[in-house]
Amino acid sequence: MLKYTQPRKTWFYPVSFKIKAVKLSLKDNVMSKDVALALDIHLFMLSRWRE
Q1: Count of structural domains, the chain
Q2: Which of 1, 2, 9, 36 shows a CA-CA span of 20 to 30 A to 22?
């Protein structure tokens, strides 16, 4: 079984980046999947920020 020997890397995103990503994903005719792909973040992360 795989065992982690070091803690996982946690990425830090500034609040301004999160706000920009959420605003882009809330626009009409824009899919959240495309925004996440363009900003190189996981779709689940974007959905958490939208909450």
Answers
A1: 1
A2: 9
